Amino acid sequence: MALPLEVGVEEHGSHHLVLLRGEVDMGSVGAVRTCLRELMLAGHTDVLVDLRGVTFMDSTGLGILVAARKQARVFRGSLGLVAPSPPVARVLSLTSLDRVFPCFATLDEALAPQGEPTAS
Hints:
five-stranded mixed sheet, single chain, 120 residues, disordered C terminus, 4 helices, alpha/beta
């Protein structure tokens, strides 16, 4: 049985974190698209997507992330991925999208100023 997708947003300084929990597929991707689009249209163009709780992602989910990254770049912003779950990390690797997106192991790493390592 498919897990319903939960979408949430948190503000972290200049970044907005989109938290996803459940399955990102053709049936649920509309909620992700709407959330990302509304953030960017509201001027919040530095976005991180937390993928820890994503149990499955199909090609429509990947397509939404690629489209959102392009939109962020048009607005001179950024879109990064935080802690992709093992199933999502595998799909990102198989499609070489792990080379396209900035991927971070933790939220602290994603929020650290560029060039500064986080404390371990």
